[in-house]
Amino acid sequence: MKRIGAVWCAVLLLYLASGLISPGMFQISQVINILQVAAFLGVIATGQTLALLVGGIDLSVAGVVTMANIVSTSVMAGDNRAVLSGIAICLVLAAGVGLINGLMVTVIRVTPLVATLGMNSILFGLALVYTRGAPHGGISPNFAVFGQGHLMGLPVSTLCWLVIALIIAWVSRRTVFGRQLYAVGANPLAARLIGIPVRKILISAYVLSSVMAVLGGLLLTSYIGSPSLGIGDQFLLTSIAATVVGGTALTGGMGSILGTIGGTVFITELNSFTNIIRVSTGTQFVLQGAVIALSVVLYRLLGLTQKQQLS
Amino acid sequence: MAKQNSSPNYTRREMIKMSAAALGLATFSRVRPAFAEDVISQAKIVSSGEMVNPAKYKKNGTFRIGFSNGFSGNTWRTEMLYAAKKEASQHKDLADFIIVDGQGDITKQVNDIENLVSQNVDAILCIPNSGSAVAPVLRDATKQGILTLPFNLPVDGEAWTAYTGTDPQKKGFQLGQWLRGALGDSGKIVALGGLPGNSYTAAAWKGAQKAMEGGKIQILAFRDAYWEEDRAKVVMADLIAAYPEIDGVWCDGSQVAAGAMKALIDAKRPLVPVTGDDYNGLLKLYDQQKANYPKFQIGLLSEPTWESVVALRTAIKLFHGEEVPKRQTIEPQLITSENYKNYLHSDLPDGVFVDTNLSNDELKSLFRS
Fold first, then answer.
1. Fewer Cβ atoms within 10 A, N terminus or C terminus of chain B?
2. A182-191, A206-215, A277-286, range with the lowest pLDDT
3. Where are the domains of chain B?
């Protein structure tokens, strides 16, 4: 819980600091804007958290987001009658990708990093083959409500993100499946010895990660409305950064979805702040990198303090 | 150093019709009518005074050409590649046209070019990922008697045979001048570029800043937006929150311009004058929204996808023993609110770059629309 508290403290501190430097950050419209943009990364990072919790990593999220964008715009092609089929096809494809990732890791025993990075490359290649480098189509007008609409003053994309993240948070904390995710990530051998179906849990985590990436990709597609082959690239590392800043350990077994929500807001807030202040692009990168590294160092210190208290 | 702008300026259509001596496109009889008819661009190509002597390159039989494309995966590259393949298929003496993809990797592209050299190609076309990284390998190839023809993005030095492309700094300057004029020499603007550290954006933005010097234009911010609509929309949404008044947007590409305009629409702010290139998505957006926003204007300079055709023809001319210019600088004309309908393809996807030598049917087939 300390880790969750820490990330939300960091979100608040960054917000206050950035607002003092650039008062534009204090506007309600900017808060809503940050939450709207955070939704895409937030949903993808929710899936990434599950992959990290079981001691893996999912580098195919970038390719899955691009796949969601290319397939949904191609299937919908501006037709309102094709919204459901567009979403359904993307979800089935995502489940397939997650299943292959899971089988690669559990049955063929390929390192998660290599398996999912390879899958990312395959998905980008397939997107190129499918579109022949010339993507076509566009979203259905009704589908735009998910990325561009507002409900009670809040962006629909944000509401979607929070609903998805809170359901996954509940599942991970309050169900047997959730407990098994943590157990497998913390010590797979011990988990197997106490009768947890380790393979099934690992495969489920990768399937859920891919499904979350597709949902994030669909929200982003709804926000922008058109296909683009490079649309997913930015999420390869930012999804991991948001998760790690949110307190999830790269070694598995430790972390939370609530922390990842905080990590996502933090990363988006940081990007937004560095967009607003008058610094060069180079300084922007240095600032972002330094703040992320600093937050991870703080977690380590927090972890050490906890260990000292226990011993 | 090649002398620039030493020959008179003609429109490209004029150049083709006039047998295009300065263009380096040989005699009128060699110019395919389809090319002249299909291209809607009025772009000019200015040739350098320095010419390349064809004596050592002339071939009597067939020849092989390699093309090292820095990366693929955006629609500009797709159209450019299609145009190159189509052109290559029309030359019977071109025995082999080998295309290799650098996948955006500087090292891989150097390796690709070395492989082309070892395959004994007679000419290498190249769009570099890095103008400095490929310079040594192109220099070595040139020394071995291979024709080296970088295009679209420049390569450091002069150790290559001939270059074709636009002048980004000049384009940036012209776009800056247009924006300054559209704003009546007064107002607050934001600028959105491409990839961080990219030489094209850096040069274009340098030119734009020069164009705005001395006036009452206030530059609020410059941000990279990765030439992606979604990234531009996110960045612009932040800038909108920070700056209550934005009177104009300078962009070096129209995907970015379209993303910026969509952010303004979402924020319920009026659309403003914006610059960019020949991306169909912005033309369609302008066509849909111009009636709703009286201040919305566009000032665009194309980056022709037929640059590959000019580069390929330059190589073939040298093999045929014809002299060509060392540099061919494309100077596209402005696409504005007045003439945009000549370029707009309402029936084609946003991703189409409209300054192309491909026919409407070819574009439809390519984009499956």
1. N
2. A277-286
3. 12-167+304-333, 168-301
Give the pLDDT score at B39: 44
Q: Do A226 and B79 touch (CB under 8 A)?
A: no
- Chain-chain contact of B234 with A148 (C-beta, under 8 angstroms): no
8 Å CB contact of B234 and A37: yes
Residue B151, classed as helix, strand or coil, is: strand
For residue B77, the distance in angstroms to the closest alpha carbon of chain A comes to 8
Residue indicated by tokens 């946003």: B350
Task: Give B-chain residues touching A285 at CB under 8 angstroms.
Answer: 196
Alpha-carbon span A151 to A158, nearest angstrom: 10
- Residue tagged 């298929």 (tokens): B89
- Smallest Cβ distance to B230: which of A22, A220, A278? A220
CA–CA dist A105, A59 (Å, integer): 13
Q: How far apart are CA A239 and CA A177, in angstroms?
A: 23
CB contacts of A231 in chain B (<8 Å) are 228, 230
CB neighbours (10 Å) of residue B62?
13
Answer whether B75 sits within 8 Å of A27, measured CB to CB: no
How many whole angstroms separate alpha carbon B300 and alpha carbon A107?
A: 54
This complex has an ipTM of 0.85
Contact list, A230 vs chain B (CB under 8 Å): 73-74, 226, 228
| CATH number, domain B12-167+304-333, options 3.30.420.10, 3.40.50.720, 2.40.50.100, 3.40.50.2300 | 3.40.50.2300
Asked if residues B70 and B129 have their Cβ atoms less than 8 Å apart, the reply is yes
CA B331-B335-B336 angle, to 5 degrees, is 140
List the structure tokens of A222: 């709804």
Contact, B340 vs B286, CB < 8 A? yes
Q: Are A69 and A226 in contact (CB under 8 A)?
A: no
Q: Residues B15-72: pLDDT tens digits?
A: 433 333 333 333 333 333 233 333 445 677 888 889 999 998 999 899 999 999 998 8
Out of B77, B196, B237, whose CB is closest to A133? B77
Which of B192, B205, B219, B230 should be substituted to probe chain A, the one whose Cβ sees the most A Cβ atoms within 10 Å? B230
User: CB-CB: which of A24, A226, A281 is closest to B224?
Assistant: A281
Token reading at B174: 């012209």
Give the residues of chain B that fall short of pLDDT 50: 1-40
Residue A175 CB burial class (10 angstroms; 0-12, 13-18, ≥19):
exposed
Give the closest of A24, A226, A271 to B229, CB-based.
Answer: A226
Touching B: A residues 148-177, CB under 8 Å: 148
Q: For domain B168-301, give the CATH superfamily.
A: Response regulator (3.40.50.2300)
Q: What is the pLDDT of residues A212-254, one digit of tens each?
A: 999 999 999 999 999 999 899 999 989 999 999 998 988 899 9
**What is the amino acid identity at position A132?**
R
